[in-house]
């Protein structure tokens, strides 16, 4: 299964991708995670993209496409993959179309007010990457990951200014992909509001399970 999770930041793509990965045993490829790892490791790529991520803008297409193309050539993608956060522009979608054939694109629909509330309360484990929310999905112990005991942190782009910029960028650059994939008969709309369990049940129905 080759599947794209499309939708604004905070729509729940990463959370659903995590569950999907466990259920189907296929890799989750998150461009945001790849960029954050490059920044943490202070690689050349990381140095180039840090200020772009902090500002909530998009990394240039050539860099992003090259990164994904390389990742998709790894052997663990032979049974499929979940793309989370890629493509985010029409040129990225066109590039992907040139090097692979997809099965499905899920369009997560969540209203802005809910997105802002989700992103402002999001906390991420610095060790295993697990995502929490201070109100909706709190860890058992404040600031500590339930799974691995790592320290939880707030992403530097989960601040009010970056959140507004990311939503604006989504509207301008990424939303046109809805029409792009709808024309190709690959798009399925998912109501992404509600608890993780409720959204996951809806998601499985869309997949036909
Ligand atoms: P995410 O973790 O998906 O919210 O992505 C975090 C940030 O990484 C975005 O705000 C962008 O700055 C950058 N990024 C992630 N994916 C892409 C992409 N496909 N194209 C360009 N920039 C991206």
What would your notes on this structure say?
The chain has 209 residues and is an alpha/beta fold. It has a domain at 2-111 and 173-207: P-loop containing nucleotide triphosphate hydrolases (Rossmann fold, 3-Layer(aba) Sandwich), CATH 3.40.50.300. 48% of the residues lie in helices and 15% in strands. The chain has 9 helices and 8 strands. Helix 2 packs across helix 3. It is globular, with a radius of gyration of 16 Å. The model has no long low-confidence stretch (mean pLDDT 94). The structure holds adenosine monophosphate.
**CATH class call of the domain at 2-111 and 173-207:** Alpha Beta
Could you say what the CATH architecture of the domain at 2-111 and 173-207 is? 3-Layer(aba) Sandwich
Radius of gyration: 16 Å
> Helical proportion?
40-55%
Task: Figure out the total of helices.
Answer: 9
- Lateral arrangement of strands in the main beta sheet: 2-3-1-4-8
CATH homologous group name of the domain at 2-111 and 173-207:
P-loop containing nucleotide triphosphate hydrolases
């Amino acid at each position: 299964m080759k599947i794209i999770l499309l939708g604004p930041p905070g729509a729940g793509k990463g959370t659903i991708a995590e569950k999907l990965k466990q259920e189907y045993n296929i890799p989750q490829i998150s461009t945001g995670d790849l960029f954050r790892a490059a920044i943490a490791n202070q690689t050349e790529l990381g140095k180039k993209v840090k200020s772009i991520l902090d500002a909530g803008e998009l990394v240039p297409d050539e860099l992003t496409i090259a990164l994904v193309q390389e990742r998709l050539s790894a052997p663990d993608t032979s049974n499929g993959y979940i793309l989370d956060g890629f493509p985010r522009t029409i040129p990225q979608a066109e590039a992907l179309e040139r090097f692979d054939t997809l099965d499905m694109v899920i369009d997560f629909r969540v209203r802005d007010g809910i997105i802002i509330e989700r992103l402002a309360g999001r906390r991420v484990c610095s060790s295993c990457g697990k995502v929490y929310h201070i109100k909706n999905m709190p860890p058992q112990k404040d600031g500590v990951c339930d799974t691995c005991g790592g320290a939880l942190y707030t992403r530097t782009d989960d601040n009010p200014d970056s959140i507004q910029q990311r939503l604006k960028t989504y509207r301008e650059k990424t939303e046109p992909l809805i029409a792009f994939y709808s024309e190709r008969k690959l798009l399925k709309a998912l109501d992404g509001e509600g608890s993780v369990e409720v959204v996951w049940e809806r998601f499985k129905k869309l997949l036909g399970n």
